[in-house]
Protein: MerR family transcriptional regulator
Organism: Jiella endophytica
Amino acid sequence: MKLLDIGEVAARTGIKASALRYYEEAGLISSVSRHGLRRQFLPDVLLRLRLISMGKSAGFSLTEIAAMFGSDGAPDLPRDVLHQKADRIDRQIRELSALRDTLRHVADCPAPSHMECPSFRRLVTLSGRHAARREKTRRGGREFG
Amino acid sequence: MKLLDIGEVAARTGIKASALRYYEEAGLISSVSRHGLRRQFLPDVLLRLRLISMGKSAGFSLTEIAAMFGSDGAPDLPRDVLHQKADRIDRQIRELSALRDTLRHVADCPAPSHMECPSFRRLVTLSGRHAARREKTRRGGREFG
DNA sequence: GCTTGACCTCAAGTCGGCTTGAAGTGGCAG
DNA sequence: CTGCCACTTCAAGCCGACTTGAGGTCAAGC
């Protein structure tokens, strides 16, 4: 079983050793042994780090990510919670698509002021067609989306 | 021309007044006048705030967002830069889709350890099929994705 | 004309996510 | 045996994005 030195993990993932230590501290990854002082990781950590990176992309906090992927890398959460997370990601994908389309539109549309371009306004407003949820919508709440 | 009081903007968007003031400070939005002390905004600010919210979703910093959407809400950047941003978003969408699929898979797959489930591993590894870029890949760099 | 309450300013505080610096350790090459 | 150098710990620092608190202002309603 070949183990990876923290330095190698850093090199292969592009994540600094300091960040890896921080992740371990936070319970996101774990080293299986030491070689001298040096942490050694199972190769699986690479997969796990990809998962973490994706989670971060999706705007989840490290704490949420830790909760999502339990000890063996498999989510511990009940099915419905997982599906909720997936739904949240779906909404975000829609938002991102709208932004991407908006940027591309703007790159190509010659209108003098985009605020007056109907296609522009339509793009921005798209994906926002549900009522603005008010009230304490703290952490994880979608703002007026 | 009906103007919006900051309180109304806050109510309609779900963004706290303090955050709106912060955004104004940062040059992301601007108030057009005061009623007494109170900031008044053009209705367009709502659209602009949607744009900002989307940009945040996409992981752009406020500074990047400010650069993206110039004074009138229209991006100031050269076409190719805009397309680059759009490409970055596209990659992120792919990552998010992979995460979403992974979550859904895990919610439904009965394998005891997902680390050993080939579909799981495939899903995680998907969207990661280009070489890990090393070196100072600070801010905006995609990690091993 | 006084109170009220939603706003104002400005400085300081908070939180997440790391990074940096100082001081130490230990395997390995020469 | 001696460096060396990549790692270690721990505390402190930093940045972005806000929030909070103290103290102030002012249009509107009674």
In short: Confidence is low (pLDDT under 50) at residues 130-145 of chain A. Residues 16, 18-19, 22, 26, 35-38, 61-63 of chain A lie near DNA strand C (CB under 10 Å from a C1'). The longest strand of chain A covers residues 38-41.
